[in-house]
Each structure stands twice: as C-alpha cells, then as structure tokens.
Structure to design on (151 residues):
C-alpha cells in the first residue's frame, strides 16, 4: 500500500473530538475559500511558485457546495490511527521532506515506511509525474515475489 504525502497535516490524525471536528468545519462552512487557502499554503514548502499555489487554490475552491465541505468533513472525521491498526500489509508513505515533521516520524515511523522526497509540494504527483512513477515502480519492484522455478 502506498500513500502520497499526508503527514504534514498532523492535526488531522488521530481522530478528533466532536468539538474539534466542528471547529474545523466551521472554518470551511463560514469561508470555504479561506479554509482551502490554508490547506494549499500548508501543503506548499517555502519557495513554492505562487502561481502554482494559486492554480491549486482555484481548482480546489471551485468544488461545488456542499460537496466541498462534506469532503472535508469526511477527512476530519476519519480515524487514520484506527485504519492503520487494521492494515496488515506494509505501507509506504512518500512525504515531502520539507513538510514532514519529527512528530510525524516519531508517531508513525514504527507502522509506516516513510520515504522523504523532494518532488515539489503536497501535489507532487501532478508536479512530477515521472518522479512519482519512479517511486511507485520502486515499491512495486521491492514487493514483487519472484516466480517459482519450473521443475
């Protein structure tokens, strides 16, 4: 299993209390654009091209409502820690080096193989599709089981 850069939004994990969920959702319900801008900024390392951030913002803020707020609600109500407890297969997380925190590595390093990458922002699969494909191919190759020899 592979995850593409989610460890910088550490405040989302583990599951939030109902009060915390409502506080987070209030931001998006009252000013969806401001909430989205915060997400874009939070997922962009220092030095990210402002035009690129603006493009991500415009695409994300254009989501029809209430679908946008409901997608955020699904995210903030999700309990990643509970999900990880149920997973038996190895999980590799490709995380942006400049965004990942020591806390994330300490919290999840025993359950996830965290591979630090320098391929752009939170949206690195879009920014660097070839680099992302190489990372994924490396995981697939490492997980491949050699065929049984024929007698």
């Amino acid at each position: 299993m592979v995850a593409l850069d989610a460890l910088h939004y550490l405040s989302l994990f583990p599951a939030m209390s109902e009060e915390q969920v409502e506080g987070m959702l209030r931001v998006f319900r009252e000013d969806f654009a401001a909430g989205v801008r915060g997400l874009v900024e939070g997922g962009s390392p220092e030095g990210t091209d402002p035009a690129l951030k603006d493009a991500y913002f415009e695409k994300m803020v254009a989501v029809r409502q209430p679908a946008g707020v409901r997608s955020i609600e699904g995210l903030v109500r999700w309990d990643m820690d509970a999900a990880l407890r149920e997973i038996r297969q190895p999980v590799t997380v490709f995380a942006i080096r400049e965004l990942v925190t020591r806390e994330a590595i300490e919290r999840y390093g025993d359950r996830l193989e965290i591979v630090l990458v320098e391929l752009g922002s939170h949206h690195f699969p879009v920014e660097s599709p070839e680099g992302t494909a190489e990372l994924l191919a490396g995981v697939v190759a490492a997980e491949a089981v050699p065929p049984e020899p024929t007698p």
Notes: DSSP finds eight helices and three strands in the chain. The radius of gyration is 18 Å. Residues 56 and 129 are 16 Å apart (CA to CA). Residues 2-143 form a domain with the Rossmann fold fold (CATH 3.40.50.1820).
